[in-house]
Design a protein that fits this description.
Number of strands of chain A: 5
CATH superfamily of chain A: Beta-grasp domain
CATH topology of the largest domain in chain B: FAD/NAD(P)-binding domain
Largest sheet of chain A: 5 strands, mixed
CATH architecture of chain A: Roll
Order of helices and strands of chain A: EEHEHEE
Number of helices of chain B: 11
CATH superfamily of the largest domain in chain B: FAD/NAD(P)-binding domain
Number of domains of chain B: 3
Radius of gyration of chain A: 12 Å
Shape of chain A: globular
Strand content of chain A: 15-25%
Distance between the termini of chain A: 33 Å
Helix content of chain B: 10-25%
CATH class of the largest domain in chain B: Alpha Beta
Structural class of chain A: alpha+beta
Number of domains of chain A: 1
Number of helices of chain A: 2
Radius of gyration of chain B: 22 Å
Strand order of the largest sheet of chain B: 3-2-1-7-19
CATH topology of chain A: Ubiquitin-like (UB roll)
Oligomer: heterodimer
Distance between the termini of chain B: 55 Å
Largest interface: A-B, 21 and 29 residues
Number of strands of chain B: 26
Chain lengths: ~110, ~400
């Protein structure tokens, strides 16, 4: 179990306890986090679950593989060094307290 | 109280419509009516991870059941709608219940085409693949050592063949055209997937016309081809395409032509009724088309929510698709309809390549096999209306990112 917080640009936040093994795109859509769509269901084809990871958490969320790295080129809001596709971050106790910033397309 | 917006069909288009409706803060009440017993779920994993047994059912759901309650969306599952009474703006369920609507969305999807019963289509052990129930019925039959016969070499058949091999079944696949994927892809893509499946031990027969399925009483035991060849089988999966579910719309007198005809705002010939997803037929670049894809269903559902909220938007989304077979990720962007030339771009390793479709000098679409760069940057290139030359694309040294951004 991990408590995850999604922060919006307007300063509002959504927090939820996420079961181990779920990915954070699923967790976001289940908890009605805006702007996280996950159209492809997490198979790295749509880039609609883009998040910014608070820098102190980057190492714990794991490596970005080549496919994710390429798909991050397709995000609506341009990628930054701390960009991830949240379908590739898997919940575990390690991530308890993780904070994600949700980019908002124009 | 004002009548709700009623959505018939609990699939991807419905989920996407509801999500956008809620996100836009539109307070008009929603009622979702579905024939199945589940909230809207993802269908693509059915022929992949769900059939493999790697994904639990609840994880197929696009939103958990509780989410709909939280958004005050009324749900009616296991409910078949028999009739639309357009004059009274109401629908009638098979149980005789009458439900009034303010606006009506038809998200009725498509159904797997079955083999005719005369040639064995209704024998025990013969399956089609479309719903959770279909998979729950066939999955127990997917046991190592059994003989699986797949009729049809489209994406569903190929994905199921991959699962069958991964689970240790003997797999034979029949395609009546002269190559698999003939209807949807160029020869280079067919060649790639033929090689992939043959390398994984699938016995793949092209230009193979099924005469009939053979049985022991009620149970299928094989197939006879028109050539007279007999193929043994313990189970048969029929993947020969699908047909749009338009009976309701047709009976209500809505314009239909290979799907429910809709405008660029997904409106049917009745201004109170919209249609989205596999069942809709729309105009793209002057051509009437119907797409069976998550992207199309999701984007059309999303669009209708925006239209009903008063936004001036029209449907112009660039289509994209995907398929997973063994360790190959296929990603497709664009529509190749009307192509007259293809260009093969070698990949960064032997199992990766992309096929670029052109009509004359105009780039239409890309099939990218284990080649996400071609997909991602190709999508940007198409969206930007750029048309790189065949020579540029065929040269592996060409930097696609630079082409996309330049």
């Amino acid at each position: 179990m991990a408590n995850i917080t999604w922060k919006m640009e307007d300063g509002s936040e959504i927090s939820a306890d996420v079961k181990d093994g779920l990915n954070l795109m699923e967790a976001a859509t289940a908890n009605n986090v805006p702007h996280i769509e996950g159209e492809c269901g997490g198979c790295l084809s749509c880039a609609t679950c883009h998040v910014f990871v608070a820098p102190e958490w980057l190492a714990k969320t794991g490596e970005v593989d080549d496919i994710e790295d390429t798909m991050l080129e397709m995000t609506d809001v341009e990628r930054e060094d701390n960009s991830r596709l949240s379908c590739q971050i898997i919940a575990s106790a390690e991530l308890d307290g993780l904070v994600l910033q949700v980019p908002e397309p124009e | 109280m004002a009548a709700p917006i009623v959505i018939i069909g609990a699939g991807q288009a419905a989920a996407s419509f509801i999500s956008r409706h809620v996100a836009l803060g539109n307070e008009q009440p929603l009622l979702l009516v579905g024939e199945e017993s589940h909230p809207p779920y993802q269908r693509p994993p059915l022929s992949k991870k769900y059939l493999l047994g790697e994904l639990e059912r609840e994880r197929l759901f696009i939103r958990p059941l509780q989410w709909y309650a939280d958004q005050a969306v009324e749900l009616r599952f296991d409910t078949r709608i028999d009739r639309i009474d357009r004059a009274r703006k109401q629908i009638v369920s098979s149980g005789g219940e009458t439900i009034a609507y303010d606006k009506l969305l038809l998200c009725t999807g498509s159904s797997a085409r079955a083999l005719p019963a005369e040639i064995g289509g209704s024998l025990d052990g013969v399956f089609t693949l479309r719903s959770i129930v279909d998979i729950d019925r066939m999955a127990p039959e997917f046991q190592a050592g059994r003989k699986l016969l797949i009729v049809g070499g489209g994406y569903i058949g190929l994905e199921a063949a991959a699962v069958g091999r991964q689970l240790g079944l003997e797999v034979t696949l029949l395609e009546m055209a002269d190559r698999i994927l003939q209807r949807v892809a160029a020869a280079a893509t067919s060649d790639y997937f033929r090689n992939l499946h043959c390398a994984h031990g699938v016995s793949l027969h092209e230009s193979a016309r099924l005469a009939r399925l053979l049985s022991d009483g009620r149970k299928v035991r094989g197939a006879e081809l028109e050539s007279g060849e007999i193929i043994d089988a313990d189970l048969v999966l029929v993947g020969i395409g699908s047909v749009p579910n338009i009976e309701l719309a047709q009976a209500a007198g809505l314009d239909c032509d290979n799907g429910i005809s809709v405008s660029e705002t997904c409106q049917t010939s009745d201004t109170h009724i919209y249609a989205a997803g596999d069942c809709s037929n729309f105009v793209r670049n002057g051509q009437h088309i119907r797409l069976e894809s998550v992207q199309n269903a999701a984007d059309q559902g999303d669009l209708i929510a925006r239209v009903l909220a008063g936004e001036k938007v029209t449907y112009t989304a660039l289509p994209w698709f995907w398929s997973d077979q063994y360790d190959c990720k296929l990603q497709i962007v664009g529509l190749n309809h009307g192509y007259n030339q293809t260009v093969l771009r070698p990949g960064t390793n032997p199992s990766s390549q992309s096929v670029w479709y052109y009509r004359d000098q105009q780039l239409l679409a890309i099939d990218a096999m284990n080649e996400p760069k071609s997909y991602a940057f190709g999508r940007k290139i198409i969206e930007a209306g750029k048309h790189p030359t065949a020579e540029q694309v065929a040269d592996p040294a060409t930097d696609l990112k630079a082409l996309a951004m330049g």
